[in-house]
Amino acid sequence: MSQASFAHAAKALRKADADRYFATLVLPVDRREGVAALYAFNAEIAAIRERVSNPAAGEIRLQWWNDALSGEEHGAVRQNPVADALLGTIAQYQLPVGTLQRLLGARRFDLYDDPMPDVPTFEGYAGETASTLYQLAAMIVNGGGQVPSGDAAGHLGVAQAMIGHLRAFGYHASQSRIMLPWSIFAANGVRESEIFSGVESEGLHEALGQISELAGEHLEKAELAIGAVPAHLRAVFAPVSLLRSQLDAYQSRGTSPYAAPPLEADWRKIARLMWWGISRCR
Questions:
Q1: Same domain as 136, residue 123
Q2: Which pLDDT score, from 0 to 100, does residue 281 have?
């Protein structure tokens, strides 16, 4: 583990997932590197589909990371700076490797074009990916100790995944992918072919409205649960401020659900996170 690896991980995170990078800026200075390494690992995994030509190649990359976590090093794993920073963070804070391996397993879904079946499956997927990151980040901020933040991490992770996929609905539709619960679309009479062709309908708007309401319910439960988290750990959950803004903007939008959402200026995001941290973490 080297300082250069942590610096590389933070830089890679800033490029691949700016919102999570900004979220590290409100954390205690001596914990930022570890959380950034965790988030950079997640960004690497989330981007695998975009970087490979077929699912088999994606499976190989996931297996490489699984072997790295298991200690079955094929080649110089530590020469990968994100892996080096992650393994160093795992050792320093005694993070549960099995939790990260379940994240890898959940991300196998991303490699294929099957639609997300239903709400319970989506919530399980979000729990193993987004919620897991909050729980592990809280452990890092707590110096490696277990933290009572399950409800906050669980609901916030589901809300984040749902809001993110609502905002990316048009992009995923252009790839013939449905990452939101298909059962809700089907119940409103929407067909896959209509989504893939960019067709708008009353049923589509109703389905997306129901999903956004569900996201709002998870976000409200997360906000309530965060209030019960020990003050010194609440900064981990500062992204709730960005998600609330994004959901409000989505629900009041006047454009097609297939249109790319407007982007908020980075300085506004940073200010929103900082203000939330100042007002909620004391």
A1: yes
A2: 73
